[in-house]
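Handout, page 2. Input:
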Amino acid sequence: MKVGLVVLGGVARRPEDGWIPCLHWLIERLASRHDVHVFSVYGAPRPDHYAFLGAMVHHAGARPAAFRTATAIMAEHRRARFDVLHAFWVVPPGVIARVTSVLIGCPVLLHVSGGELASVPDIRYGGLRTWAGRLWTRIGLSGASQITAASAPLIDQLGAMGYAAERVPLGVDLTSWPVVAPRPRRSGPARLVHVASLNPVKDQVTLLEAVRLLAGKGVDFVLDIAGVDTLGGTIQALAQRTGIGDRVRFHGVLDRVRLHALMADASILLVSSRHEAGPLVVLEAALVGVPTVGTAVGHVAEWAPDAAVAVPVRDPEALARETFRLLQDDARRVALGTEAQRRALPYDADWTARRFEALYEELTERRVLNAARRTGPVR
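Output:
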């Protein structure tokens, strides 16, 4: 089968230019069985193409990026027909896939991957924030032959908008992320961890206020933060100003080995995001036996109350209170970690690839049947 993945980015030549691990795991698995071409709208300063994990990556690399991406898809289709286009993110990948599919007669599988269904005006975030964003989101969604999303809240939101969708979590590669059994907390300071880019959507302002309140309760803890800094040191400066600088350690971007060690050593994962499709980090924490206390988004919302603790968005008092309660009840903390791991284990990266492959087969079979109906019986 020939598959065209249409993505925003995450498949650069060098990791420092932006990698998305869950995309890599999927590409590697699909490419071992299919002819896979990845069309990246952004992520390279100029047009480029190269072999990547068994697939071929095509970068638009210059404006107009959407037009160049669509042109590259059609050129590759002329060389050998695509069986399916698989878009990650609605705008612009889903829109590009929709327009291109009309021209080449190919079904589109669309995975809602980010803030397409969000509207957070005060930080200028979300595809539904403006009329233009709402229009393009509708165009992308309406052109899909099948829609998927990682978590139940997004499936529910899509349903409310009139679109049926299937929940397909983007699972973790267990070969690079070994499973660790849940275990009692060690003596000494509680180890809290937060893994996310430093940006307004992840809302580290709320996170730091919550841990400041936690310190005020007399809790002995260390908070490890890992992720790329997009805010030029403002979060680090805020930690110092609020008097918790000696309790917070900023690690920047870590490789998978160091990140796994950091996560496996933690007591609780803290999530403070204002919106999430997943996030993957909740699954990663679960696989090393660490439960999540976080805002009611994505996997945190769908797993609460049995496998995670969810609190309202932008509520540092609630985040501090529930973290404090869980640190005081280690039996409950281990039980949450155990249930979270039970839920995460079946949906690893292998499962994700197999499910998408099954959907590819369904879409291609549906296209053949529809074509047969249009042409009618041969006499």
